[in-house]
Amino acid sequence: MNSHHSSSGYPVMPSRSELVHTSATTIANNDDSNANQRVWNFCAAALILRPPITHPSEVLMTTGLKPLTDAEAREVELVFRLTKSHLGFVPNSMRTMARQPAILSSFTLMVGNILGQPSDAKSPIWLGIRLVIKNVIWSLRNMRSKDRLPLALKNLVAHVTSGAAGCRYCQAHTIGEARDQGVPIEKLEAVWEFDRSDLFDEAEKSALRFALAAGSHPNGVTADHFADLRKHYTEDQIVELGATIALFGFLNRWNDTFATTLEPESAAFANQHLSASGWEIGKHG
Question: Which residue intervals define the domain Carboxymuconolactone decarboxylase-like in the entry (predicted)?
């Protein structure tokens, strides 16, 4: 496959037709000697398993999680009330996120801090204070939840989605964090071959396939990904995975936009254990 790079020199995801051609050629020739080529070959195999969904209504009906109604999301009534006071309605994205009150309230506070203007405030200040208090309560409960996903898995998810998005800075950080959480070096080095590696169980493979598709451009998540996830995770845990991916969407754009300099320790570890799969420091050096 021809090399694909953006104007900044970073790899970008090829089109679906190019992926199909590359995957077929790779299968026929068993050619994956080049490290960067091997990563794209893997992306191709992961993304062409299902024909593309093209009709927006089909996407809404067959993928994702159902937005919760007001009755189903009574616990976060305060968040919905504040949102309605500003927008006149509650976006379905927030209704989906409502399965995890701590994530929803933290997101709402972040949006307020980034976009909020005192002159535009339509709610009394005491409602905002109540939300901050609720956020603390929900966050403490969330941290203690027995259903909370392991940080090691979330770091691997963050690593794969950051790799698909092309953020070398976040790749280096997440692989180091995964090591600190006890993931063996052999497994870290095999992360870009997870779908054919015995080092990853089926639940991990499902989460990493989801992360790879979600971090790709355009987004490659389909109904099949959610069907696969539901075999291993609850809806609350799927929201947790999605929030991890979305958080690193923010961090990927932040660090690539500002060309954040990668710290020496992270750079050394990434060079040692990720270079075989095509990692390079790029603009972060």
Answer: 145-211
